[in-house]
Amino acid sequence: MNGESRPGQGGSRKTTASQSGAHPTPAPPKDWLSHKELAAWLGVTEQALYYANHTGTGPRRHRFGKELRYSAGDITEWISRRAVES
Hints:
This protein has a domain at 30-81: Arc Repressor Mutant, subunit A (Orthogonal Bundle). Helices cover 33% and strands 20% of the residues. It has helices at 35-42, 46-55, 72-81, and strands at residues 15-17, 24-26, 32-34, 62-64, 67-71. Strands 3-5-4 form a three-stranded antiparallel sheet. It has a two-stranded antiparallel ribbon with strand order 1-2. The longest helix has 10 residues, at 46-55.
């Protein structure tokens, strides 16, 4: 497994400061995640992630051939934008 933390396997999650600095944002387990890996890491179905992409509310994605990939930086930014202040 070459030392990488896999989604859903209880690996430790690094945190990065969000842009506001108020709440830490969990960092994805590696630099690029597949659609399936991101859905598992977020705890949502793949269909829910496809729907978020379709409606423009999902994270920025990149297509490599037939594969969708999500960069850690784009995921972290997307999570920070979705933060809800109480």
